[in-house]
Amino acid sequence: MSSRALVLDRIRRALSDVPATDPPYDQAVPRDYVREHGARTPAQNVDLLAENLADYRAHVHRCGPEGLAELLARLLDEREARRVLLPAGLPRELLDAAAVEVLDDKTGLTAQELDGVDSVVTGCAVAVAETGTLVLDAGADQGTRRGTLVPDHHICLVRVPDQVVASVPRALELLAPTRPLTWISGPSATSDIELDRVEGVHGPRRLDVVLVRG
Q: What average pLDDT values come out for the chain (214 residues) when binned by 10 residues?
């Protein structure tokens, strides 16, 4: 018997005494909890998102569409980035002002090639104001999950206020559980060893978040 068959068999035996009249899972648990804390305008949610992102040591920037290419060029230059990963769903014109080699993350990069990428620029699926969290679901403007975890520098574009929601429950209403979801709260970090904070452990060492108006 395969491991999969063994696990499924144990689940069937564990559920064998559940009555057929039992309510389905999505109705069995009452979900009458508070869905967001307080009443805020969309602009206030954006401000709260920026505040919480900064608290997680992400670098937050604001601009309009007309200044985005120039801002991206400056951020990449500050990191001395030369090879930049750009998902197919984002226009290459975004990096026209940057002196970089642009790589498409759907070209089948090997692990070694991906390790040589300096920065990745992506969009996001949704951003959560109350927790300062960005959620990626591998959409066309976000690319592959490994493309956002291996490079040392991640620039994430958030359309504001459209992509900002107040709380995690509000975000879950917009996300498909069948997609590969990556929840990002600040740059990758751990304090497991003697409570010393170390960044860049299992993801990018630096996270730049650009809040793009309109």
A: 92 88 80 86 98 96 97 97 96 95 82 91 98 96 92 97 96 94 84 66 88 94
pTM for the full model? 0.83
| Number of structural domains found in the chain | 1
Task: Let me know if residue 67 belongs to a domain.
Answer: yes
1: amino acid identity, one letter: M
Question: Could you tell me the CATH number of the domain that includes residue 79?
Answer: 3.40.50.10420
* Domain span including residue 200: 40-213
DSSP-assigned letters across all residues of the chain:
--HHHHHHHHHHHHTTTS-TTSPPHHHHS---S-SSSS---HHHHHHHHHHHHHHTT-EEEEE-GGGHHHHHHHHHHHTT--EEEE-TTS-GGGGTTS-SEEEETTS---HHHHHT--EEEE--SEEETTTTEEEE---TTT--HHHHHSSSEEEEEEEETTTEESSHHHHHTTS-TTS--EEE-SS-EE-TTTT--EESSSS-SEEEEEEEE-
In a domain, 184, yes or no: yes
Say how far apart CA 185 and CA 203 lie, in whole Å.
11
